[in-house]
Amino acid sequence: MNFANDLPLLAYLARKIRLDRGLSLENLKNENISVGTISNIENMEGNPSKSKVLYLFQSLNINEEELEEIKQKELLEIETLRRKLECVEDLINDEELEQAKKLLAQYAPKEHHALYPYFRYLQGLCYFELREWKKSQKIWEETLVLCKKQAFVAKHDLLAKCFNRLSTCWYAQNDLAKALYYVEEGLKQYKTKKQDEIKYALLVNKVLYLRKSDRRKEAVKLIKEVWPLINQIQSVRVKLILYKSYCILLLENQELNEALYYCKESIDIAHRNISQKGFLLDFLNILGSIYLKRKMYEQALEYFSLVFDISPDKKFSRRHADTYTYLTSLYTAQNDWVNAQECMKKALSFGREIKDDYRLSKILMVAGICNKTQKQYDEAIPLFKEAVTLCKENEYPKRTCNAVYELAACYDKIGNRKAFSQWTEEFYRLQRKIGWIMEEEFYVIF
């Protein structure tokens, strides 16, 4: 027995065996070992000696030879349960929630088990997939506390995974500041090569949050640091998220040829992984948007139509919202007002349904521009005002400037000088505050 290396496991076993037998600390104390010493051993505090640790196990009627056998048996049991729970995580990620919940109930460990924090993490993951953000958030915050209390760590990347998932939870609730905070906390946990995969997931999410926080330069800098490592990323999902952010940043930077190349490469990856249908739809939308930007409208329409062909139901409503928004822009560019209005209404309907403020603010802008282009200023103004409110609430400064600019333009067109002056002054204040540059168009909505 290597005492120093085995101490975390021995500390865990001492507590687990005591609790499994229904014993308290008081039940084990005697003239040779105090409650405080037992507690220190179980919590790995106070540098307990080997003799005291072995004496504690003797108090549990376990000698050193038996202890070695128990240790090996426990490690095997932990590994078996860990693999079972990892299979449950795969089921959750594949959206097979009913089977996942059934197996979670079947595999549920006791609260003092080394894998109980991982079990709780998976319960939070189930709630997250059901879009019950508050419940998943509460469970993951509790899981962080459990992880930090553990003497023996049975799931080594769990702390970083929790921080990453808390970041996605706050992102889903449109709080980018907290999303960035938790992703940074997760990156602080990165210590060994064994955690490379979760580190990539955290970095990829950080790129996403920076981009949506109007911190594009930081997002570009980070993605250039991560991109050379893309072939080391094992998770297809993480790899596709990175591809997606890279394609969008290239598109926003007018690097259309490179964006087109990586978008097509992403679609090939998604095709080879049938469970990644959502990403396939994302990249079809991006590919269509590249052709839209090139004014190749018929080609763009082919890809937007393909999204509906392979996903006719509302399962991927976020992707449908994107497609209808792009189509609104496409038909507006063609002065096809019947189709533009129809797609605009569907985009707004999906946008309000999915509870994604970043996406909805863009949809409102596209809808407003569609009405404004038709000189329907009275219809455009409420859309731009709603966009302003949403952008201010979520601190999207550049998008706020865009919406305010469009509002001022509408009031100018209808001759309302008072409102025009009000929004022009507001635009000037915002412009001074952030050093604003007008977005060229609103095609990129991811």
Highlighted features:
22 helices; DNA binding; repeat; mainly alpha; 434 Repressor (Amino-terminal Domain); 446 residues
Q: How would you explain this protein's 3D organization?
A:
TPR repeats lie at residues 281-314, 361-394. Residues 64-98 form a coiled coil. InterPro entries: Bac_ResReg_Asp_Phosphatase (IPR051476), Cro/C1-type_HTH (IPR001387), Lambda_DNA-bd_dom_sf (IPR010982), TPR-like_helical_dom_sf (IPR011990), TPR_rpt (IPR019734). With 446 residues, the chain is mainly α. It has a domain at 3-62: lambda repressor-like DNA-binding domains (434 Repressor (Amino-terminal Domain)), CATH 1.10.260.40. The protein is built from 22 helices and no strands. It has helices at residues 3-20, 25-28, 35-42, 50-59, 64-93, 97-107, 116-129, 133-149, 158-172, 176-188, 196-212, 216-226, 236-252, 256-272, 277-293, 297-310, 317-333, 337-354, 357-373, 377-394, 397-414, 417-434. It is elongated and about 95 Å long.
Topology:
Elements lengths: L2 H18 L4 H4 L6 H8 L7 H10 L4 H30 L3 H11 L8 H14 L3 H17 L8 H15 L3 H13 L7 H17 L3 H11 L9 H17 L3 H17 L4 H17 L3 H14 L6 H17 L3 H18 L2 H17 L3 H18 L2 H18 L2 H18 L12
Helix pairs in contact: 1-4, 5-6, 5-7, 6-7, 7-8, 7-9, 8-9, 9-10, 9-11, 10-11, 11-12, 11-13, 12-13, 13-14, 13-15, 14-15, 15-16, 15-17, 16-17, 17-18, 17-19, 18-19, 19-20, 19-21, 20-21, 21-22
